Amino acid sequence: MDRDDRGEAVKEGRAAFIRKLARRDDLSAVEIAELQGLQGRIRDVRAGEDIIALRAHVEMSSLLLWGVCGRYSAFRDGPRRFTEINVPGDFIDLHGFVMKQLDHGVLAFSDCRILEVPHSHLRDLTRKHPHLARLLWLETVVDAAIHRQWLLSTGQNGPARLGRLLCELYVRLEQVGLASRFQMHLPMTQQQMGEALGFSLVHVNRTVQVLRRNRLLSWRGQVLELLDWERLVALSEFDPTYLRLHKEKI
């Protein structure tokens, strides 16, 4: 990747992050300039590799510029259990800013590009701009809410659980300007989606077929279309309140 491509990737990733924060509260021109000035090391990670190793000690937090990855935990000899899928514009380990020693790892589902922002930079940013500090805090609160919703969804049947996840991903991608008209580009295979949900490949294939037969989902390659939003929301009992999409002063 040449220098111009790297610069454009950082610009687009920061813009997605700023759009997300601006959906939750008004940002001043000074705050926007500070966020546009986020600096760090760009790193490319191939699909199937860890972006952050399980239980790593971190001195930087990673902003996902493009690609899709997942946060997971695992016992020493057990399978990975995922608790969130991350999309561009997410700080995938922002809580590491205060935790340092993580209790999980982050796996790249697709090829990913990240911006590793040193904690020293975040420390200066939050010291100078208390409002941005609160917005970053809100990011970690929403992460925790997503984890709770994923735990709740384990009590649902396959179609409802997959439908809920697809609704969540669509709303989050739409929030940062990467989805519209109930269509989204999602660089994940059905097998990876099954792993994220704890489904076997056979189970996830059958579940996708149920949604297709009911004219709720079109899945062609990496392009997904939610064909009947209201029915899919009703089936999955999806309520986006936990994603804190509305604008309210904090």
TrEMBL record:
Q: Which GO terms describe its biological process?
A: regulation of DNA-templated transcription
SMART domains for the chain: HTH_CRP
Cite the Pfam families for this sequence.
HTH_Crp_2
Keyword Transcription regulation present in the record's keywords: the answer is yes
User: What superkingdom heads the lineage?
Assistant: Bacteria
UniProt domain HTH crp-type: residue ranges: 156-230
Annotated keywords: DNA-binding, Transcription, Transcription regulation
User: What would be an example GO MF term here?
Assistant: DNA binding
* Record InterPro entries: cNMP-bd_dom_sf, HTH_CRP, RmlC-like_jellyroll, WH-like_DNA-bd_sf, WH_DNA-bd_sf
The name this protein carries in UniProt is Crp/Fnr family transcriptional regulator
Q: Which organism is it from?
A: Caulobacter flavus
Q: What is the lineage of its organism?
A: Bacteria, Pseudomonadati, Pseudomonadota, Alphaproteobacteria, Caulobacterales
